């Protein structure tokens, strides 16, 4: 990892001096006349340093983010699906870029990095991915959501069309938490793509201590993440939409420095993309990321449901892209081998 400091960020940023002086950074990228035509902004950065990409993507929203955080605890939620496969998970450099940004707006006094890894002990992933060096450098705590309080919500199961109780992280549901989704750009074997929303919704179901997908699983230990999947492609898309009313990021940061294509989110292959997306409208951020991945937005069920019901802005014509040109950085990610089966959500139930 390249070494850097906040000073390096500012030197390499085209708008660093504007951000530090408190002047609106939006005007550095686009005219106010153009902004009037749009409803929401999404920042798009490119470059060769993950941390710098994240820092610069967040800069245009500095004033808005600072005000929204207020006195709330900041929860950085990485996307560590597996604890031992780096390509599936949020890179430590991306988190460092976010922490440097929080430091620059003086909101680093109450920050945690919180996760519930899917396949095993969360702290194994923290260790494998080098997160402990962040604790040594910043006043931040690492938290295993599985060891924290939970609330009960209910989700849909397409096998019986009945509500099923599910244990969901109280930390992510707590109104005193300012949730930052620090996600990774990846294809998915059930919902085409996993971005900022899915990172929060599927990080929230907790699992028992000792749970593992291997033979080392403690007898009786269960994970509620499977319940949220709803037993099928229709069920998972609907549950993602329904749960988004309770669980969604206040700030979305999507790292596409090295994305994943193919049979994601666990078994895909790397894409050298070198982009980063950020917005205070999570749906707009996910919408732009979908476009960058060359995926047909109309085929992503849960995001379409959220768009149809006004959970955010999903209409690309209403989104102002700050920074880089969207059309110059689109890469067509290979989708999962089972993509045709995934699209059953688009058909009537017979």
Description:
- With 350 residues, the chain is an alpha/beta fold.
- The chain has a single domain, classed as Rossmann fold (3-Layer(aba) Sandwich).
- The chain has 15 helices and eleven strands.
- Strands 1, 2, 3, 4, 7, 8, 9, 10 and 11 form a nine-stranded mixed beta sheet that branches. A two-stranded antiparallel sheet has the order 5-6.
- A hairpin with a 7-residue loop joins strand 9 (251-261) and strand 10 (269-279).
- The radius of gyration is 19 Å and the shape is globular.
- Residues 1-7 and 9-36 have low confidence and may be disordered.
Concise overview:
It contains 15 helices and 11 strands.
Task: Considering the chains and any ligands shown, give keywords for the structure.
single chain; 350 residues; alpha/beta; Rossmann fold; 9-stranded mixed sheet; two-stranded antiparallel ribbon; 15 helices; disordered N terminus
**Average pLDDT for all residues:** 90
Helix content: 25-40%
Return the string of H and E elements: HHHEHHEHEHHEEEHEEHHHEEHHEH
Q: Are there runs of 5+ residues with pLDDT below 50, and where?
A: 1-7, 9-36
Using only CA atoms, what is the Rg?
19 Å
Strand portion = 15-25%
SS-derived structural category:
alpha/beta
Largest sheet: 9 strands, mixed
Shape: globular
Q: How many domain units?
A: 1
CATH class: Alpha Beta
